[in-house]
Amino acid sequence: MKGIVFTEFLELVEQKFGLEMVDTIIEESKLASGGVYTSVGTYNFSEMLQLLGNLSKHTGIATDDLLFVYAEHFFTALKRSYSSFFDMYKDPIEMLSSIENHIHVEVIKIYPDAELPTFDVLEKTDDSLVMIYKSSRAMHCFGLGLMQSTFAHFNTQATILTEKLKEDGTEVKFVIHKT
């Protein structure tokens, strides 16, 4: 997993829960990196699971809920760093449907060894989108948060329904309708 995911996560933890919480979750986790991350480095996903698990334990907030909130923070970081990319799209459905064929292609140019989930578009209209998320990492709530943030970016309302196709959350169907 790319380091930017870790650095932004720890920034969020500091903003929401304080520097002491950052220290606590790093100390309690058994991190090969020692909790030292660079945005361009690559780190084991198990470290993110440990950090999330310890944050959940100390805050009482479910891991999926933490991932959702983190996605909103991460979206803001992406807009700050890659604002011109967001200007390429005029509509959230258009942007979300281009994840696999455009957005991930651009991410791989920046982070060649990134391990990205796949988003297979099953149906697309001007007002709806059905996609299947597949990943070895059960972070579909992170994807859901990014999708909600995409609609907010475009000042558009939507309902996004999720259906776990695999119980562990590594394959999830997203059914999206503009409202």
Describe this entry's structure for a reader.
- The chain has 179 residues and is an alpha+beta fold.
- It has two domains: 3-61; 83-178, Alpha-Beta Complex (H-NOX domain).
- The protein is 53% helix and 16% strand.
- The protein is built from eight helices and four strands; from the N terminus they run αααααααββαββ.
- It has a four-stranded antiparallel β-sheet.
- Strand 1 (118-124) and strand 2 form a beta hairpin.
- Helix 1 packs across helix 2 (19-28), helix 2 (19-28) packs across helix 3 (45-59) and helix 4 packs across helix 8 (140-153).
- The longest helix is centred in the middle third of the chain and has 19 residues, at 63-81.
- The radius of gyration is 16 Å and the shape is globular.
- The mean pLDDT is 92.
- Residues 2-160 form the Heme NO-binding domain.
- This is Guanylate cyclase.
- It comes from Neptunitalea lumnitzerae.
- It holds the Pfam family HNOB.
What topology emerges from the helices and strands here?
Elements: H1 3-17, H2 19-28, H3 45-59, H4 63-81, H5 83-86, H6 92-97, H7 99-110, E1 118-124, E2 128-134, H8 140-153, E3 158-164, E4 171-178
Number of domains: 2
pLDDT averaged over residues: 92
Structural class computed from helices and strand pairing = alpha+beta
Find the count of extended strands (DSSP E, 2+ residues). Answer: 4
The arrangement of helices and strands along the chain is: HHHHHHHEEHEE
Biggest beta sheet summary = 4 strands, antiparallel
Question: Any idea what the CATH architecture of the largest domain is?
Answer: Alpha-Beta Complex
Give helix % range: 40-55%
Q: What is the number of helical segments per DSSP (H or I, 4+ residues)?
A: 8
Oligomer class: single chain
Low-confidence stretches: none
Name of the CATH homologous superfamily of the largest domain: H-NOX domain
Name the overall outline: globular
What's the Cα radius of gyration?
16 Å
The first-level CATH class of the largest domain is given as: Alpha Beta
Distance between the termini: 34 Å
What percent strand?
Answer: 15-25%
Q: Which fold name fills CATH's third level, the topology of the largest domain? A: H-NOX domain
